[in-house]
Specification:
The protein has about 170 residues and is mainly α. About 75% of the residues lie in helices and about 0% in strands. The protein has helices at about 5-10, 15-25, 25-30, 35-40, 45-50, 50-70, 85-95, 100-105, 110-125, 130-165. The longest helix is centred in the last third of the chain and has 34 residues, at about 130-165.
């Protein structure tokens, strides 16, 4: 399985060095960063909207085993019981009805290491999509959203670490 950094570098227009810098920044800085803005603006929203049925079918087929893996292999306690949650959220984001902060809040309970281990597999759920452009756009969209989750999880871990050592 690919590493987190390799997955991001492969699907986003960011170098490993840029990714290291971004993942070390506070979430508030990353959310307004030109790098993230450029990644999100470069998504072909029209193509993503047109291919929502394809993405929905992929997620409906692949997410149950992914969720099972999260629960049984990575020990994530709160896992959605159906793919509808994720599919609905991605559709809401593409249609600009969901915010990145809402995504971060939903994933706060997920331990950072489990989150980071799951991202390459999550992005890889779209490997079987035959249309290369559709596959690339969905993988890029998922990778960009996951980058925000990693930044938030790492920031949370740094805060907890500092708090723990100051007592």
């Amino acid at each position: 399985m690919q590493s987190l950094l390799t997955t991001f570098a492969q699907h986003l227009d960011l170098s490993s060095t840029q990714l290291d810098v971004i993942m070390a920044k506070p979430l508030t800085e990353v959310l307004v960063s030109p790098e993230l803005e450029r990644e999100l603006e470069s998504l072909d929203i029209n193509l993503l909207k047109q291919t929502l049925p394809t993405a929905g079918a992929v997620l409906a087929q692949e997410l149950p085993s992914f969720y099972n893996w999260l629960k049984n292999e990575l020990g994530v306690k709160r896992v959605p019981d159906s793919p509808n949650h994720t599919t609905t959220w991605v559709i809401g984001f593409v249609n600009r009805q969901e915010s990145l902060m809402n995504l971060v809040d939903l994933h706060r309970p997920v331990p950072r290491l489990a989150l980071e281990a799951a991202i390459p597999r999550l992005v890889g759920l779209f490997d079987g999509v035959e249309d290369v452009q559709v596959k690339q756009q969905w993988q890029k969209a998922i990778a960009a959203l996951c980058l925000v989750l990693v930044v938030a999880a790492r920031e949370r871990d740094r805060y907890v670490h500092i708090l723990h050592h100051s007592q």
